[in-house]
Amino acid sequence: MDIETAFHTVGEFGPYQKRAVTVLVLAQVYMACQSMLIVLVGYTPEYQIEKQDGGPAGHRELQQHVTFTEDVDSIVTEWVLIRQQAYKVSLAGSLFFTGLLVGNVVFGPLSDKIGRRPVYLTGLFFEVIFGYLTALAPSYEVFAASRLLVGLMNGGIGLVCFVLAQEYVGKSYWAVTGTLTSMTFAVGIALFGALGYFVRPWRTLATVANSSGVLFFLLSVTLPESPRWLYSQGQTARAEEVLRFIAVRNGNNATNLVLQRVGAAKPGSPARNRGGVLQLAVHPVLRLRTMVLMYVWYCCSLVYYGLTLGASDTSGSRFVNVAMYGLVELPAYPLCIYFINKSWAGRRKSMACFLCLAGSACLCTTLIPENSGSPLSVTSLALLGKLMVSAAFNIAYVYTAELYPTVIRNAGLGVCSMSCRVGGILAPFVPSMSRVTVVADVCAAVPQALLSCKRPCLCFSERSTPPCPSRCSV
């Protein structure tokens, strides 16, 4: 039997698979806490600087004359990251997203080569270690370096964790596990906001948020290797062993389970040479499609993380704002499911409309004073923008996979993911720009980029896949 028939035999989503997927899905809470850590530990409170005689003072002299008027413990108050040093807060956030970019590039192919489980466990182990290094950092330089390393591990295990959750279950449950993973990440952002309310010192907050990773690592040690990966590598005997292991814990009898013997594709075989990143540039339709999708992913990431990382800078409690920016994503997923399955909407029109609505909501923030007291506030419009861009981002994942032929689908997703991380690298500087320039200019810049995505999106046909130059099958 083939691998899909085997899953029907052992159970597509049995009790054991539910437990394994639960561990992987809940690990998103830990990854969300690490992603949003800089939002609270990098908070800049109000401060006063004593007047000094003479010329401008250096940073060391400035530390002796600054007084923070709020009772806040953050990296800003500990290392006095204000004025000329304020950029270091955003830089630490950008270093984290730089690590995400490198992690995606390195860990994805590595997990394809040596297996999902060892890459996931190794990455999670080192992310916990580097997370504690963040909490114990004696200087800003060590803190920034640790955020880069945490991002490197986070980007890698986030990708592998998502794939593992898919490969433990039957294909009919892939949409369920994928949606649960995204929703749990949003819940993790909200839980981090609540945690920050009860744990105020930044070192303690970083320690507590990171400690959940120890629990998830211990729970993940018992997880088996992906049977789908083993089968794709020609390790049929080991794949049968894992499937029987799952069947026993599901309460099913699979003693006669025998998989069809297949060989792993060799590096020089035609199956490996039919597609690649080069095809994205050579084929004119794929080239245009890739350029537009890269821009869409970049804009979605820039606005998604730009709004989320700026939660502490908006009016009201920064802890409530962080929680709201996480919870507001949850309605986006049923919205996506409803619209993309309607013939009058579909992927193309839905994504274009969500992008347009997100840009319009952000543009409207320039028309409302910060503390006007009206029901339609800057925060409510920003939350609406976050909801819309979350929906567009979710559709982009699905739509991108459908727009590429099978043999170059991973290459297309990889290129789009890289452009997405570039947006994430720039996102931490979006909130900080409001301190050095006119707010309206900054608020308008990002939505204009979103609005410009609408027309290119409309040039796509619904769920179309062009033929490759090598006449590869879809």
Layout of secondary structure:
Blueprint: H1 3-10, H2 15-41, E1 47-49, H3 59-63, E2 66-68, H4 75-79, H5 87-114, H6 116-135, H7 140-167, H8 174-198, H9 202-220, H10 227-232, H11 236-250, H12 270-273, H13 277-282, H14 284-309, H15 318-327, H16 332-340, H17 346-364, H18 378-403, H19 409-426, H20 429-433, H21 439-451, H22 454-458
Antiparallel strand pairs: 1-2
Helix pairs in contact: 1-11, 2-7, 2-8, 2-9, 5-6, 5-7, 5-19, 6-7, 6-9, 7-8, 8-15, 14-18, 14-19, 14-21, 16-18, 17-18, 17-21, 18-19
What does this structure look like?
With 474 residues, the chain is mainly alpha-helical. The protein is built from 22 helices and 2 strands. The chain has helices at 3-10, 15-41, 59-63, 75-79, 87-114, 116-135, 140-167, 174-198, 202-220, 227-232, 236-250, 270-273, 277-282, 284-309, 318-327, 332-340, 346-364, 378-403, 409-426, 429-433, 439-451, 454-458; strands at residues 47-49, 66-68. Helix 17 (346-364) packs antiparallel against helix 18. The radius of gyration is 24 Å and the shape is globular. Residues 267-274, 436-445 and 465-474 have low confidence and may be disordered.
Name its key features:
mainly alpha, 474 residues
Strand order of the largest sheet: 1-2
Structure annotation, total helices: 22
| N-to-C span | 23 Å
Low-confidence stretches are 267-274, 436-445, 465-474
Roughly how many Å is the radius of gyration? 24 Å
Fraction of residues in β-strands: under 5%
What general outline do the C-alpha atoms trace? globular
Provide the helix percentage: 55-70%
**Strand runs, count:** 2
SSE class = mainly alpha
Sketch the major β-sheet: 2 strands, antiparallel
Mean pLDDT: 82
H/E series: HHEHEHHHHHHHHHHHHHHHHHHH
